[in-house]
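[recover] target loaded
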């Protein structure tokens, strides 16, 4: 049966590994499909958004492209360029420019001469006006002076406000006279972008962010600028006092030519790019892909769950096919094992019963060994006395013929010897009855005599350990139904355990009391030791349960005592006494009673 189980377990393990691999593959495939599908949908949404945003930016830039050419039909503009020091003419042109700016909504409109110096402006009366400033270093001024239309985004030199500059060469009779410039404010675009989903930014030809829905991104390059680009930016003062600190975005994956997966400020963002038609600017839309990742994880979980369900159904079908054969094989082997086990149980039961009787007898012999020391002491005293009396009697017999009074002394010594021999007989009789297996007989037994016998056997230990023994029996002739030798063995064991328990106690008091309670006789043995540990209270009468150090006891005494008391028709209980120490109570049926007083 074990071989069959091992084979089944191996197959189950291999199937589990294969199933785990399939579930993992399904989860990875589900995640990949959902991830790329979600990114593609998000990219398409970004492209639609970029279409609208690019059209809006382009419309705003072209809205004012006609204004510079409008000034070519204004004669006094050319007169100002011929006589730039004419203050009245400058004010007249500036008022004209102010009116056009107010009508069209342009941020600024001004005229620059061939030297690159601004001669008139719509804000000529306001602080920061460009009038009188040399703007020849600006790219849009250089482009217009060279006959090209200028386009430039930068921070105003005098006003400090960013804007988009459109410049147009002013020509008269085929000769270039100056430059007309209009400045367009695009900050309204940023306000609109902040209300849209995701983020939007506009990058110039140097890959520097010039407009953004997030203010901290403004005037920061996507990548570090080289030395030449930094030098050019400083000369043109394109970005004002900006530090041009790179954004530090990391490209994690290039999806298509116009879409990349970036890591922006610790979060993954999908970035789509759109090139504006009339310049080198790029419009970018960014969206967080957290929702796409969550959807992909959910799809992976669903794919794994679906695959797991299918595999589980397949495994269940396979296991059902195997279950019938396995069950039949196991039943055959279980039946054989059961038959063998029943035979073993019958054999072990018979052995256990025999061993139980041997164990009781072994307990007697173990206790007999403990009694030997006390018994030797008890035997030595009468033997010594007998030796002395015998020697005296021999000497006195020699003197009987001469001293008739010695005859009575000899008789007295012999009487003493007889009493000592009787005492030795009682002692050896107790040992014999204790050592051999006997049938349990229940006869009236004098409790006081039993306790006297136990005290006699333990006398030497009581003296050596300085234990104070108190015995109280009420009534004095109290009898129980039982066997004197077995009951004496129980009492010797309980009192011996009590003496051991008080080995380290500062006060050694052993109290034995016997009294009648209704039709039962109670005998208690109480010591002044440390008591019984809580973990031992439920195991006191189990074989080999002991709190003594190794070699001091086998843990069989209480078990044997409880067995003997049960054979006598009673019970043995152990507990902790109220005043400290342990208390063991023997309950036996009463014999004939003189009275029924309890313990005093």
């Amino acid at each position: 049966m074990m071989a069959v189980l091992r084979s089944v377990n191996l197959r189950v393990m291999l199937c589990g590994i294969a199933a785990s691999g399939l579930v993992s593959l399904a989860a990875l495939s589900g995640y990949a499909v959902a991830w790329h599908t979600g990114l593609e949908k998000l990219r398409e949404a970004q492209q639609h958004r970029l279409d609208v945003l690019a059209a809006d930016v382009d419309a705003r830039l072209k809205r004012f492209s006609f204004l510079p050419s409008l000034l070519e039909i204004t004669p006094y503009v050319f007169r100002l360029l011929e006589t730039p020091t004419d203050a009245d003419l400058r004010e007249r042109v500036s008022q004209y420019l102010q009116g056009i700016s107010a009508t069209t909504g342009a941020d600024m409109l001004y005229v620059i001469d061939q030297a690159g110096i601004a001669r008139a402006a719509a804000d000529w009366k306001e602080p920061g006006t460009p009038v009188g400033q040399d703007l020849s270093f600006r790219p849009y001024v250089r482009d217009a002076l060279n006959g090209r239309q200028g386009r430039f985004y930068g921070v105003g030199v005098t006003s400090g406000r960013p804007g988009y500059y459109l410049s147009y060469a002013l020509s008269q009779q085929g000769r270039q006279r100056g430059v007309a410039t209009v400045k367009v404010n695009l900050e309204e675009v940023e306000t609109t972008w902040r209300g849209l989903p995701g983020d939007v930014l506009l990058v110039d030809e140097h890959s520097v962010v010039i407009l953004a829905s997030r203010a901290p991104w403004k005037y920061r390059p996507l990548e570090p600028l080289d030395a030449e680009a930094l030098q050019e930016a400083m000369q043109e003062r394109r970005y004002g006092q900006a530090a041009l600190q790179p954004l530090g975005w990391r490209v994690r994956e290039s999806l298509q030519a116009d879409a990349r997966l970036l890591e922006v400020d610790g979060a993954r963002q999908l970035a789509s790019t759109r090139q504006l038609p009339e310049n080198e600017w790029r419009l970018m839309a960014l969206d967080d892909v957290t929702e796409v990742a969550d959807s992909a994880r959910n799809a992976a979980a669903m794919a794994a769950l679906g695959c797991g369900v299918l595999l589980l159904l397949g495994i269940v079908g396979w296991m059902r096919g195997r279950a019938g054969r396995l069950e039949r094989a196991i039943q055959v082997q279980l039946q054989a094992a059961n038959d063998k086990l029943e035979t073993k149980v019958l054999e072990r039961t018979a052995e256990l019963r025999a061993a139980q009787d041997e164990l009781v007898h072994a307990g007697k012999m173990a206790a007999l060994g403990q009694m030997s020391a006390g018994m030797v002491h008890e035997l030595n005293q009468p033997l010594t006395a007998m030796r002395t009396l015998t020697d005296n009697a021999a000497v006195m017999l020699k003197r009987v013929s001469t001293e008739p009074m010695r005859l009575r002394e000899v008789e007295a010594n012999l009487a003493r010897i007889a009493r000592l021999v009787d005492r030795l007989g009682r002692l050896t009789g107790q040992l014999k009855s204790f050592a051999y297996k006997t049938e349990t007989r229940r006869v009236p037994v004098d409790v006081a005599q039993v306790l006297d016998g136990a005290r006699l056997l333990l006398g030497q230990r009581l003296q050596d350990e300085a234990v104070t023994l108190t015995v109280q029996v009420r009534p004095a002739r109290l009898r129980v139904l039982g066997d004197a030798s077995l009951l004496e063995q129980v009492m010797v064991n309980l009192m011996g355990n009590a003496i051991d328990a008080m080995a380290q106690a500062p006060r050694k008091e052993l109290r034995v009391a016997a009294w009648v309670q209704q039709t039962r006789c109670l005998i208690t043995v109480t010591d002044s030791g440390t008591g019984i540990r809580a973990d031992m209270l439920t195991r006191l009468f189990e074989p080999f349960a002991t709190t003594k150090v190794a070699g001091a006891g086998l843990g069989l005494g209480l078990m044997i005592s409880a067995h003997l008391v049960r054979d006598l028709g009673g019970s043995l209980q152990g507990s902790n006494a109220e005043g400290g120490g342990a208390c063991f109570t023997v309950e036996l049926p009463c014999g004939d009673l003189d009275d029924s007083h309890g313990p005093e």
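[recover] notes: Confidence is low (pLDDT under 50) at residues 594-598.
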